[in-house]
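Anyone able to model this chain together with pyridoxal-5'-phosphate?
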Amino acid sequence: MKYDKPFTNALQGGDKAFREMKNFSKTAPIFETSVFSFDSLEDVDAYLNGDPDLYMYSRLGNPNNRQLETRLAALESAEAAVVSSSGMAAVFAAVMGLMKAGGAVSSGTRIVTSRYLYGGTRSLFFQELVPLGFTIVEVDSELPDAVLNALNESPRDCLNILYWETVSNPGMKAADIRKLTEAAHASKPGKGETGCGLEILVDNTFLSPALFRPLEHGADAVLHSTTKYLNGHSDATGGAVLSREEVVEHARKAVINFGSQLSPFESWLTFRGLQTLPMRMERHSSNALDIATRLKELPEVYNVCYPGLDSLRDSFPLGAGGMLSFDLESSAAAGRFIRGLNMISFSPSLAGLQTTVSYPASTSHRNQSDEMLRSQGISRSTIRLSVGLEDPDDIFQDIQQALKGGEDV
Ligand SMILES: *Cc1c(COP(=O)(O)O)cnc(C)c1O
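re: yes, here you go
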């Protein structure tokens, strides 16, 4: 079942799983099993013929995963979804799914992407996919013209996967996905020929379907690190790929064959967290907008980046999420600031209930030169804030006292 509104989809969307009993538990049980038993060989046949109510082996499918997948699909307006053990597993499965659905091979697949990419995704592309024969093309600019040029330079007999993040991590650059998809679809290299053409894949981790649904804006597939907002409670790692049925089935094969399935317990936790997603995103967004607005007024703070403040804010009428970044005067000032925080903890992930801070130059972007950092839109004094659900006055008070060197303000 799919509803029009995220608030309803988060609580009621997807299959009515486990409802076949007359009187069943209100919440889903955790099917913490590696294998399932069959009553008859007829049932085995039915399973192998695709009966969705039968399961065989948890690597191939599990009721908790199915429950999560159908609800995620309802939320993202997707035909289908497959979950995986991490966001990185989802990136890989999504690329494989699009490549195979398009009838392409790795040596004929070109990934055109932004240089402001999540570090883990960049590592996957350059350390794993390049040796497998993929071509990676990094575009310097967010502007549709630059993307169009990169696509038009493609050989004709090539599948192009345009890979974009709705908001980049940690540079906090928001993309105008509709403009990008319109420009990209206008290029369509090798359109209509097997193994050629264009697929647009969007990493929607930073906004979540509660705020923005790329498939409604021309994307062909979406992926998530469910570790972040979809689960939202910092207690389970996971990922998801959402697209048309054919792509998802190929992505599912990649998850099965590479053994990157989500465990039943992580799936259950993610499903539980997901139900409050729209409510959390509303509060993350209003808190972050409030903090970003106040940070801009502080003399010690430079370069406040929050998509809800910039020219694209109208693209996100429901809110621009909880992530923002800003610069301090120097790396020493960044160190003093982080030491001075009382309530806000330093933890190099994001999207949890509590406000956390991270410092890309010594975590995700460690060992990079100043020039490399700059090329990704950050510096040695960039602080990234994952704004949580606390009272914004308390969040701001902690930031202010830490900026003043830890004294009371
Ligand atoms: C965290 C993250 C990923 C990777 O997800 P994992 O669950 O850590 O594997 C991918 N993309 C973005 C934007 C992320 O923030």
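The two ends are 52 Å apart (CA to CA).
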